[in-house]
Give the backbone structure.
Amino acid sequence: MKMGLLAFIMLLSSENFAEATRNTFMKSTGKNIGSYFEIPVTNLERAMKFYSSVFGCDFSKENIHGNEMALFPFNGKNSGITGALAKGKTYKPSASGTLIYLATEDIEKTLEKVKSQGGEILFPKTAAGEYGFVAEFEDVEGNRIALFDSN
């Protein structure tokens, strides 16, 4: 099963995972470890259309270090991190790379939008214990992306 988040949550709550190890980074920096993500794409316009339709967000385009970027919106007052769709020589879409979890308030509705925009459901809405629900899809660029709904 593809339940990276559930496995991570179980690890964090495990008695075998020492409290000192679990909190080392947060105690030393005062921050969570995640800070930013980039989703590799080969067709930036197609990817922007897909993510805009699925998540209802607008992008700002930038050229950073010779790479085309479409930045997801960011509000520093909200919790969580932000990222970008990234096109460049070193960016290769993959279903087997790092898995990121994007927040949603309604996984089923989001999965419907994924399908209507040409994405594929890889792992249906599944309970993640008391933490909420998870699911996974493949975007139009071939990336495996997860969803997390804390409701």
Notes: Residues 36-149 form a domain with the 2,3-Dihydroxybiphenyl 1,2-Dioxygenase; domain 1 fold (CATH 3.10.180.10).
